[in-house]
Amino acid sequence: MASEQKLWGGRFTGKTDPLMELYNASLPYDQKMWAVDLEGTRVYTSALKNINLINEKELSEIHRGLKVIGQEWETNSFVEKPGDEDIHTANERRLGEIIGKEIAGKVHTGRSRNDQVATDMRLYVREKIVKVLRPALIQLIQSLVMRARSEIDVLMPGYTHLQRAQPIRWSHWLSMHATFLANDLDRLNQLLVRVNQSPLGAGALAGHPYGIDREFIAENLEFDGVIGNSLAAVSDRDFVIEMMFWGSLISNHLAKFSEDLIIYSTAEFGFIKLADAYSTGSSLMPQKKNPDSLELLRGKSGRTLGQLVGFMVSSKATPSSYNKDLQEDKEPLFDNMTTIEHSLLIAAGVISTLEINAEKMKGALTMDMLATDLADYLVRKGVPFRETHHISGEAVAYAENNKLSGIDQIPLDAYKKIDSRFEEDVSKVFDFDASVERRTATGGTAKSAVLKQLDNIEAKLNF
Known about the structure:
mainly alpha, Fumarase C, Chain B, domain 1, Fumarase C, Chain A, domain 2, Ribonucleotide Reductase Protein R1, domain 1, 3 domains, two-stranded antiparallel sheet, 5% strand, EC 4.3.2.1, Fumarate_lyase_fam
């Protein structure tokens, strides 16, 4: 029969259009789930043995065959054959070749590819979170924190609207990005809880006809629990959407991080210099050193967002239970996770190897950035801030109108004409180090406040 080798071939007698074969197949990209597919089958068949649907000898043979298949995948010696639609079909077909079809034909008893693929994907995503994404994210956060601690005395301008605003510490800027990423770590851990639920044993959609112990399966696959509704178990791809949303959000954070560093690396700023390992040159202009690593980090945010939106559109109106539309989850998800993995590693490399120019950073500070400190000076003398704001503005205007280099150059008698409450100690305002140290409240720029921020961020890395 033309469709005999297919898992679903019994009802079909006609040949499948060759283009349909290609259109339907997912093995080229879902084969990366080979290990979790084999592990799911190993545990599932143990559960079948517990309800006497296979015996001990059959179970031993099945597990032996699964081990052989795993070794073939590991050594790149697994041979794909026509009819291997997906990783599940390929592994089961090969199992039959190794131990015989009579025994291999029992492994799918009560199981559907619907609950099988949902299980494989959850296992695969869980493994990527625990072994790849979370460690890479922690490494990046640690790189930011270590740098912040070692360069805590370096001052630079803080910006709003890309205009110089107030003096801050370089470490405060590093802490900001570490804070965003620490929140991403929290979200990833929360997502892991929802990922780590078992669909296996839900069948095609209506549950298991032989009373299999789904809790046994979940426990042995190290899931936290089972999905309690069989329809939801086979059709739920919220975890895929959440995973790609997380990837899109952290991509946005990395894009912001990259945009700042791209600006800071320009000759006009000169705050930082990227390592050669994360830069490229121009094919025409020999002098160029381009921040391609950062530009790619910034550009990947569009890629990850597109993957999220694309799959949400594919899944938004599918009918209940499993539909083949859901096969569109794998390619964007796999690429999304790989993109984020690489982006985290590149970002960690960039931040740990770049050079800073502390003199340039501090040299970019200008006295007008202390206008708020000037207002605060009068606040401490009991003047309402809304009044001091206008008074400080008058001082800025005076310096500009009289072509002075800064508000620190205004003579004391001129200050007294602006407001009689200015006294000789106003000169203490015009100190950038003192300015950042005044902001001692939680989240501020004082050294103690920044160190506390870094301590809190590091505490989130211990779970």
